[in-house]
Amino acid sequence: MEVVEPVCLPRLPRVVLCGGTHGNELSGVYLIRDLLKEVQQKEMEDDGLMSVLMVLSNPWAIQQCRRYVDTDLNRCFSHATLSGPVSDTAPYEIIWARELNAMLGPKGSPGAVDLVCDLHNTTANMGLCFIAYSDNDWICLHIFKHLQRQMPEMPMRFIHFDVSKKESYSLDSVGKHGFALEIGPQPHGVVRSNIYTAMKVGVQHILDWIRHFNSGAVSEGGYVDVFTMVKNIDYPRDSQTHNITAAIHPHLQDRDFCLLHPEDPLFRTFSGEDLTYKGNEPLYPFFINECSYYEKGIALSLARKKRVMIPPIRARTEEKQASERPCASEED
Amino acid sequence: MEVVEPVCLPRLPRVVLCGGTHGNELSGVYLIRDLLKEVQQKEMEDDGLMSVLMVLSNPWAIQQCRRYVDTDLNRCFSHATLSGPVSDTAPYEIIWARELNAMLGPKGSPGAVDLVCDLHNTTANMGLCFIAYSDNDWICLHIFKHLQRQMPEMPMRFIHFDVSKKESYSLDSVGKHGFALEIGPQPHGVVRSNIYTAMKVGVQHILDWIRHFNSGAVSEGGYVDVFTMVKNIDYPRDSQTHNITAAIHPHLQDRDFCLLHPEDPLFRTFSGEDLTYKGNEPLYPFFINECSYYEKGIALSLARKKRVMIPPIRARTEEKQASERPCASEED
User: Are β-strands A127-132 and A156-160 bridged in parallel, bridged antiparallel, or unpaired?
Assistant: First the structure.
């Protein structure tokens, strides 16, 4: 029997939890507020293995309970947007993204924090999802696998947006590792206790895993199903007014991650006509009828599923790093 | 066997359907748009029995997909707000409410339209509700009873806000008769096809009944269960920040109109503590976790249920009005 050597990866001493990147996605807003209240009593969490920084990422939008004030903050972290020219009259979020990047990054630099977990909600029936830009970031995939094991009752998927690190645009891309933790369904501007609790439990398991990893323990390898985003589909729209002319078909509504086949019903127009999916291959729909994507021209997204093998990993300890090389290493 | 004479009531020749009084409650917005599109092709609906005017009530809020721009339009139609002093710098909705009142009212005057049906959505699991200021407006109660018969599969309730005509504050109070047609659950800013269809079918049945009534036919009497609003309950809040510190308890969430007993769970705090209902009597909860009521300090409303007997009614025809009095009359 072949024994696979654990891949050695740098420890994750600086972890950041963000909520309220979208000010009306309330699970993260209230979870971060609650954790901050605990911190005031317990001091900053730093047990020698890691420090956790809690951030309410878009305070002005949170105050107004809106997704954003001027523009979507979670699209402002691409290299181009962070480094382009900016004036005093630039959208608030463009300016604020640079502040966050200075605090948590700079993106792509050795000084960037080790991991950013950004908390989100969706009106789509997606359960708990990780959204990441890589399908081979063993840290993110191991954390996901750990959550799957710890919360077997929770529908859980790993979504991969195939975008380069440079072009990646969301807040979590500022960290050396990062992902969005997306939970739904929940209307924006509402807190549902079950969704809040799922996020709270998920975050505790994430921090537990990082502590375990930082301690030097081995995390066993295995498999993760990864949903790689292929394309978006917009609503049918009136050519003159650009208003939508149909809603998600009732047979498709709430069926995120149920395979959509060619000719399956996709939309029902407001006058009652059914429209079907005209693609060539069956794909997995997600973000079905997400509120905030009406303005982005996205009625749903479609993904291809694949199984990714992840190796066992463990943290490279400083002593071992200096003297011996007992395990495979990826990043030297 | 006693035969109950039908109560004679004035016909309802001028009917108004409103959508988008709250700009992010999308079923009404898209239904009115769709009906207006039909009207452009078919001429204004006026078959001699009635005319139907379709109104998108808060165009600026609709454009921004927000509940309102400056203040809640659907709280601007009390006598005091409509007749008080107003400057050019008054909130947009205060000024706009006067325009609507001039067009559809004036409220309380003989020139007011006969019936206003104002279309709304809620994030609460309320099914289809009528919300009215009277528990003895036979027109509204008969329309409700008609809908119950026509849509037996749809959970349906009649909610009574016990407020005087003068103090009534919502757009539907501008008509001689009026009610809000509230359907949920649906996140604001989202259209769900099943909710849209329920509203569309409901509106068709409402118009059918009015046409039937205006034709002079008798509508049989019967009973309607009326939920009279007793009080609102706010979320627990932090005394300093005024932020909420708990969500609706998972056992109560989505259980609108299921009797709430003293000591039943009401909230779960963000740190995990359960809080119970401290009232003295069992009451019916509704608007549980309605998104827009966070800012109004309402986590849920509570109602008492009673059964109201409604008499048979028919329209007073002009000939009969002039010569004979074949049936009981209420309004002379």
Answer: parallel
CA–CA gap between residue A225 and residue B294 (Å, rounded): 39
The interface pTM score, or ipTM, of the predicted complex is: 0.92
How far is Cα B314 from Cα B92, in angstroms, rounded to an integer? Answer: 41
pTM: 0.94
> Is B247 in contact with A34 (Cβ distance < 8 A)?
no
> Cis omega (within 30 of 0) on the bond before B282?
no
pLDDT digits 0-9 by tens, A69-113: 999 999 999 999 999 888 888 999 999 999 999 999 999 999 999
Tell me the pLDDT tens digit for each residue of B117-155. Answer: 999 999 999 999 999 999 999 999 999 999 999 999 999
Domain pair B7-226+308-317 / B232-301, same fold:
no
**A250 to B291: CB separation less than 8 angstroms, yes or no:** no
Of B30, B193, B289, the CB nearest to A249: B193
Q: Which helix (H) or strand (E) holds A281?
A: none
Which of B193, B195, B248 is the best residue to mutate to test the A interface, defined by the most A CB atoms within 10 Å of its own CB?
B193
| C-beta atoms of A30 and B244 within 8 A | yes
Domain A7-226 is classified in which CATH homologous superfamily?
A: Zn peptidases (3.40.630.10)
Say which CATH class B7-226+308-317 falls into.
alpha beta
Domain B232-301 has CATH 2.20.25.160: yes
And the tokens for A112?
């960037």
CATH no. of A231-307:
2.20.25.160
State whether residue A255 sits within 8 Å of chain B by CB: no
Ranges of each domain in chain B? 7-226+308-317, 232-301
